[in-house]
Design brief:
CATH architecture: Beta Barrel
Shape: globular
CATH superfamily: Acid Proteases
Number of strands: 11
Distance between the termini: 30 Å
Structural class: mainly beta
Radius of gyration: 16 Å
Amino acid sequence: MTKTRNQLPVVGWRELIHLPELGLHEVPGKIDTGARTSSLHADVLEEFERDGQRYVRFSVDFREQKVRQICEAVHVDVRGITSSNGEKQMRYVIKTPMRIGDVEFRAEISLADRSDMKFPMLIGRSSLRRRFVVDSGYSWLQTPEIKTARGHKP
């Protein structure tokens, strides 16, 4: 059964993202319906094979917390993806569980250098489709404790 739009959870223009299999939690993400594929700021360290599957090992740096997380994931593809400045870049694409609020699903995520961007993660429309409705006038709608902590009101 397909949910109608008014039954779908609402996300704001930014939300906290959880990637449990990668050990990444509360990653600030910008919702971007203009982007097809979600992307994560990462430095690809190496590609390797395990049990007949292709993997990629990468690091995710959280500069403010001075933390570097090393992650491994099955990589499903290397794709030409158009960046925000219009240039086509070849990027590794992984598929891993993603959780926004109470909704968990498998998502394709490209690994990109987002060091010049304010948000380490961008959530594209393929991750949003048939799961969420976007209200760009609000933030943290799936993370009410942030709104309370920062004094924001819905």
